[in-house]
Amino acid sequence: MEVRLQNLTKIFPSRNKKNPEEVVAVNDFTFTIPDGKLIGLLGPSGCGKSTTLYMLSGLQKPTSGRIFFGDDDVTELTPENRGVGLVFQNYALYPHMTVKQNILFPLQNLKGADKLSKEEMLDRAYEAAKLVQIDELMDRKPSELSGGQQQRVAIARALVKMPRVLLLDEPLSNLDARLRLQTREEIKRIQKETKITTIFVTHDQEEAMSISDLIVVMKLGVVQQIDKPQDVYDNPKNLFVAKFLGTPPINVFDGEVKNGSLFIGEEKVMNVSNVPDKKVFVGIRPEGFIVDPKGPLTCKVQNIEVMGRDVSIVSSNAASQNPIIRSIVDADVKLDGAEEVKFSLKPHKVFIFDAETEERIYLDEVK
Ligand code: ADP
Ligand code: MG
Q1: Three-point CA angle 117, 120, 123, nearest 5°
Q2: Distance in angstroms (rounded) separating the CA atoms of residues 2 and 335
Q3: Rounded CA gap, 28 and 366, in Å?
Q4: How wide is the angle at C-alpha 36 spanned by C-alphas 33 and 41, nearest 5°?
């Protein structure tokens, strides 16, 4: 099912008189989610992810804009009539019911032509339970399950009605690190098997990168970039996106363009022939540094960490916005107690942003 968001906007009125500002939780969101894909909706807390999801589900009405599932305009439809499955961070299972009863519950309220016989309901419940691999636990109560198992039950309950669209709001946040990894693989598998168009909300960039066909990055209600995960990482549109994706994070320097050359401090690090003279921010991914005695960028070595195949050099530079610069270089690099390290830079790992707008400046040299 293709899902189309058209100029979707949600404004919450101010709640108290002291602060009359309304909140624009989602601002003019337009995007067509291709059929059968898994979309990661990514951004910091408060950027409007849940509000977007609630509008898609019908739990909240948009202030303006429309939502289409295929050719159906569903903007005015109630949640029950949209055919969506919803999964939340806190599994929200009925504690007094067994797993089986929890999964059956959405089917028992179906009316009219959708009404199912008892056998049909049980078949569907077991099918959903098998898909998330909890069919052995059907007679347990939620309190007798681990967090990961409870979340599987919640996913089965969302799937049992065969939804047209699956909406997941930070579904892994309550799980410990290992279960989080395992469950996210499971969700990916289930989505591939069922081919249900899925929107997965998370504030965790690594989670979004690993699970999504496409990532939507949001900030303060406004979509910043929509691209494949690797493309968002390799080609961020602005400084916010560049900083939000990647571990270790991108290193940001104050820089300046003078006569077609990019300077960090007094050092000329790159040619940028198409950029007019101005102040810029220079983002360099950790893997963008090469230790090179003839390199143009000089940093003070603070610490060297060996991490298996790679070496992480922790250094500093007066123009760096962060107290430390983290670069990841080959393990065979020798620094032997040096106080200074010189780097040359991989041009496609260096991004330049306008210091005023923080928008990316694209370079003729790197195409
Ligand atoms: P996220 O899920 O990305 O953390 P939300 O969509 O929950 O963000 O919230 C987006 C913004 O809208 C936040 O500033 C939040 O405080 C505000 N907001 C969310 N729900 C309400 C509400 N019911 N009333 C007023 N403001 C709200
Ligand atoms: Mg939220």
Answers
A1: 150
A2: 54
A3: 32
A4: 45
The Cα 184–Cα 93 span in angstroms is: 20
Q: How far is the CA of 287 from the centre of ligand 2 (A)?
A: 32
Tokens in use for 287?
């893997």
Contact yes or no for 287/350 (Cβ under 8 A): no
- Rounded to the nearest angstrom, the gap between the alpha carbon of residue 239 and the centroid of all alpha carbons in its chain is 16
CA of 25 to the centre of ligand 1 (A): 6
Cβ 74 vs Cβ 4: under 8 Å:
no
Question: What is the 8-class DSSP label of residue 41?
Answer: E
- Tens digit of each residue's pLDDT (9 = 90 or more) over 74-91: 999 999 899 999 999 888
- Overall average pLDDT of the 218-229 stretch: 97
Which listed ligand is nearest to 25 at the C-alpha?
Answer: 1
Determine which residue's CA is closest to atom 7 belonging to ligand 1.
50
- The DSSP string of 184-224 is HHHHHHHHHHH--EEEEEES-HHHHHHH-SEEEEEETTEEE
Omega prior to 323 cis, within 30 of 0: no
State the pTM of this model.
Answer: 0.92
Atom of ligand 1 nearest to the CA of 201: 2
